[in-house]
Amino acid sequence: MKTELLKKIELIESRLKTVVDQSSGENIAFELNERTNLLSETPVIMELASKIYDEAKWKLAEEMFFDEKKLNAKQQVQMMYIAGKLKEENALYVRAERAIKALDRSIEGLRSLLSYDKAMTKI
What we know:
Helix 1 crosses helix 3, helix 1 runs parallel beside helix 6 and helix 3 packs antiparallel against helix 6. The chain is an all-alpha fold. The protein contains 6 helices and no strands. The longest helix is centred in the last third of the chain and has 36 residues. The radius of gyration is 21 Å and the shape is elongated.
């Protein structure tokens, strides 16, 4: 699951690194179309990220349940332990969210550029 999620995130990130030639409306429209197509992957990305994170939480809860020392530790110590154990999954979840937000923002920016280009073409 992690490998699949990383591939999907990296696909978005690599597309966002693509420099768009703003001198042509055709180039803007092409890149807008390419990025809009990636939006279909965003629900799957968030589903995978949630599954990975929730599975890690479940495994950690199970581990703590069977370990008396961890179970009886102070709440602050438990929270620090949990945060440390889930750091990789949490970072992956955050990366997925940020990639999707960046994709949304870039699409909005390209739409604005395309509108501007069309308006300038009419003049």
